[in-house]
Amino acid sequence: MRGRIKQYLCILLAAAMLAGSLPFAVSAEGQEGVTVTSEAAFKEALNNHQSPITVNGTLTVDVGAEDNGRMRPVMFPADTLIRGVGDSKLCFRGPIQLEGDGICFQDIGLEFTSSNGLGSIPHREIFLAGHSLVLDNVATYRKGGDDSLTGTEPELLPTVYAGGYPGTENGVNASLTVRNSNDKTMFQAIYLGHGTET
Predict the structure, then answer these.
(1) What pTM does this model have?
(2) What is the largest CA-CA distance in the chain?
(3) Which residues are bridge partners to 71 per DSSP?
(4) Tens digits of pLDDT across the chain (198 residues)
(5) Which residues contact 186 (CB under 8 A, 6 or more apart)?
(6) Rounded Cα distance, 115 and 118, in Å
(7) Is the peptide bond between 154 and the residue preceding it cis, with omega within 30 degrees of 0?
């Protein structure tokens, strides 16, 4: 009898250790979460509406530009949790936009690298597009440049708009909630009363 109990306990312990080492979690909605270490894996997780998305490392993300040179936004589906491990951060070369409510960034750096270097127009927007965003212990500060090549802005900070990228559909209840702010939780400006950004 004791031998059988030991055997069952060993099986349970092995199952618990195996489950604890798996690289994904299951959210309340039954979606499988995923850990990403590359831009391609991050974009795939967004496209597949996976949540939570755990970022391990520093990822630079962009989805290209329009014909006029304006950077297109990275789109975030509703009910997506993006969280970091250690000093992980997401560095966006263009704007980001919400496609629904319930999007949260947690314990991560959220940086925007676009600057006015070489006469460029910076694209460091967070478009709420009429939806809800929570930033929980999120650092948004990035050091800027001090010459015409790297840019002349001392800080590269995002601007938050209630509306969306031109030509996209908006919800009607934009909200930004900042929790557990740290010394690098900073914004250039916040426009929650505006419609679509122009």
Answers:
(1) 0.81
(2) 79
(3) 65
(4) 555 555 554 454 444 444 444 333 334 444 578 999 999 999 999 999 999 999 999 999 999 989 888 899 999 999 999 999 999 999 999 999 999 999 999 999 999 998 888 888 888 999 999 999 999 999 999 998 888 888 888 999 999 999 999 989 899 899 999 999 999 999 999 998 755 554
(5) 140, 141, 155, 157
(6) 9
(7) no
Q: How many residues does the chain have?
A: 198
- Which pair of structure tokens corresponds to residue 46? 């967004």
Token pair for residue 131?
């939806």
What phi and psi, each to the nearest 5 degrees, are found at residue 176?
A: -125, 120
Residue type for position 136: D
Both tokens of 72, joined, read 């297109």
- Strand 96-98 vs strand 74-76: parallel, antiparallel, or unpaired? parallel
Rg of the chain, C-alpha, whole Å: 20
Identity of residue 101: D
Chain position carrying tokens 């800080």: 155
38 neighbors 30 (Cβ within 8 angstroms): no
CA proximity to 44, closest of 92, 79, 77:
77
